[in-house]
Specification:
The chain is mainly alpha-helical. It contains five helices and three strands; from the N terminus they run ααβααββα.
Length: 118
């Protein structure tokens, strides 16, 4: 399982690939649609998509003459499962920090439930 997770993290290490995945959360897209916002060649887009496919994050199919890509969520679920103990660990630490700050009379930092948009 760690090899699978390693491949997902390696695929997610690139901002172009993360942007492509973000676009696919809105629904399927053609290779051309995924390439649109980037100033890179179609062969470069294809290489990025190959990495995402190898990690199991994207699948490609045909619809008429179009190559359509879709997000495959299962690898992200496995990463999310792997990260669960770390979220609990840091959540507990943040709760203790808030309690300590309150005991010191300082205002507790605002928390948003751990969701951090990047």
């Amino acid at each position: 399982m760690t090899d699978d997770i390693d491949a997902v993290f390696a695929a997610l290490a690139d901002p172009t690939r993360r942007a492509m995945l973000a676009r696919l959360t809105q629904g399927t897209a053609t290779v051309g649609q995924l390439a649109e916002p980037f100033e890179i060649s179609l062969p470069s887009v294809s290489r990025h998509l190959k990495v995402l496919e190898s990690a199991g994050l994207v699948s490609k199919g045909r619809e008429a003459q179009w190559r359509v890509c879709r997000l495959e969520p299962e690898p992200l679920r496995r990463v999310d499962d792997w990260m669960a103990p770390y979220r609990e660990f840091f959540g507990g630490r943040f709760d203790r920090l808030a309690a300590q700050l309150q005991a010191m009379g300082a205002p507790a930092p605002a928390t948003d439930g751990g969701s951090d948009e990047h």
